[in-house]
Specification:
By secondary structure, the protein is of the alpha+beta class. It is built from 9 helices and 25 strands. The protein binds calcium ion (CA) and fe (iii) ion.
Length: 559
Amino acid sequence: MAQHITRRRLLSTAGATGAWLAWAAAGNSAHPAWASPGFPSDPFTLGVASGEPRADGVVLWTKLAPEPLAADGSGGMPSRVVPVQWEVATDPAFRNVVARGTERATPELGHSVHAEVAGLEPAREYHYRFRAGPEVSPVGRTRTAPPEDSDDGTLTFALACCQNYAAGHFTAYEHMAAQEDLDLVVFVGDYIYEGPGQGDIGRGQIPPREIFTLADYRVRYGQYRSDPRLQAAHARAPWLVVFDDHELDNNWADEVPSDDQPVEEFLLRRAAAFQAYYEFMPLRKLSEPKGIDIQLYRRVDWGRLAAFHILDTRQYRDPFACGGGFSTCPEAFDPNRSILGFEQEDWLSRGFRESRAGWDFITQQGAFVRRWVDKDGELKLKMDAWDGYVASQQRVTQAWVDAGVRNPVVLSGDIHSHWASDLKLDYDAPDAGIVGSELITTSISSGGTGEDHVPGVHPIFEDNPHLRFYTNLRGYVLNTVTRTRLQADYQCVRDVEVPDSEVFRRASFVLDDGVRGLRQIYDGPSSTGIAAPLLSGVERISAIDDLIAWESDDEQVGS
Ligand code: CA
Ligand code: FE
């Protein structure tokens, strides 16, 4: 109750901030214009990006920051409004420019640019760049979605999450950006880590401590976004992004921080973190934060071939059941609890009913599938996952079954390991049919290099026969989608703790149109090359410990 009163009081101040931000996002500013800007050094150090593709347009992003690590969060920019021109061409030399415009980059929004381009042709590749004063940005490549009634062609998209700068090199992005047919990157959270950082490979986080203020978050994003491999992946294809917990605070839930930060301070921190997130992401202006709220759940159509139902499992969720961690207490099964909030659950059900897509991607953060984990000799569920909100898990599954969704596929991240799973309405009934599948991508770097597990021998498979594949290496999932088939290639980096390491395909699964259940078509060599041993009892226990360690709630190894 006390928390409710606090929220109302804070909302009245944050609401004022929200109105002010909306005014600022419209290009208004309390600061004077800088008609002829000049920069001491390159203002485009953060590169360029695009996102939110539609059949007729896309969002183009950049952010002016000659000094992205300036401790005051200014990016080294003066408090003046800078006109930024953008242009879109059909060729990388910009001989055939088809659209151009000007956005006002304001100090209020960290001199970020979110240009919403319309009037482009569907299913087409474009090139774009920005100009500020005499300075010209690097060139980015993007593309539009197919026409809304089209299910022809191929969609190739990468699924990624969890890029802890300090824990490893972003080698996966270099590999991803080199994929010639890459149409889209789908990023499902943990774009930054707010803690002091993990690992000791000479990539310490800036500032070298946990972050709380807008200036802190801007500097942290500035550091991450200075990574050339991450920039290359952004410049290569449009992204669809959604956050998870570490863009704000480890394991936060709605208005509840994971640590003992007072709620009022936490909500101010939440507003600061959301603003920095928006400033750095190629999102539409409708996602501009309003105080402590940001609109992130949305649907993005790729013609009639695919629909991405992008979910927000953080802002509206009930607090962790059973005190968090692993448990099976009755609260986890309480039908009055939700991981999405009931409004978003209704929106998603409606989206299932209205969808005409060949493939419906439920695109979100934590593991959706049931995973019984042996903890201290007892099978338990992870509370910071859909397993901690069992009623939501069942309602969403039932909703796509009832709606007759043609090919439901959940795309997830968060747990810093690759998984492929089949989904069921009732995981405890041995004869229950498969009603969908889930592809969980491992981290880009979080957790450090990790190690491979030979499929089939990990004890979790005995307790969860619907789980099909697991490996504890870093990487991403490359998906190739046509009307008749989806192929998911689980890409792995051999070692993220050295600057250049091999990326290899570890496994491939296929879904055929209208057919339930993943089909494994490739099982690559494990990175160790060690043949699968049968596990002894002692080895089985240590393997369980190993699994739990990677999913610990502790920040240093936290997901
Ligand atoms: Ca996470
Ligand atoms: Fe993570």
